[in-house]
Amino acid sequence: MKYCADCGSTTLITIPKGDNRERIVCSKCKIIHYQNPKIVVGCIPEIEDKILLCKRAIEPRYGYWTIPAGFMELEETMQEGAVRETKEEACADVEIGYLLASVDVVRVGQVHIFFTASLKSTFAAGEESLDVKLFSKDEIPWNEMAFESGVFALNKYYEDQGVNNGVHSLKIDHKNPKPS
Fold it and tell me: Is the Cα dihedral 104, 131, 51, 122 positive or negative?
């Protein structure tokens, strides 16, 4: 960020008084422009022991399978975001269950949050999906999954066997995943 979003003056990178890390600060009005992780929300829609997955029609990872998920919007809860993303990607209605997993994807400044969900309607490919399909556990295309965070959430879902065992977390920092 070269220019202040508030006043248009140039910015500089400095450690503000009372802070402990470099921030982008306006050279004129002194506003601090924080850069924080973006939140991705999604769910694992289940019906009759099958999971709904979407084949991506967008980059990154075009043509790979994924859990319905995407960036959270302002003025919505995490659960509302997961419901919206499922509707957008799979034209499906879901009822959110419990918080299943959180994944810190440090290298891209994101936090991925996944819920369990019950599929409550029919489904079809939305604008961001090439295909949507129900998979039993042994049918999931594990080698064609788009994101490590989704694979982690699916594995925890199956390990829990439908019981709320609390939130599972993972840190992905470069190429060294660290369960926590």
Answer: positive
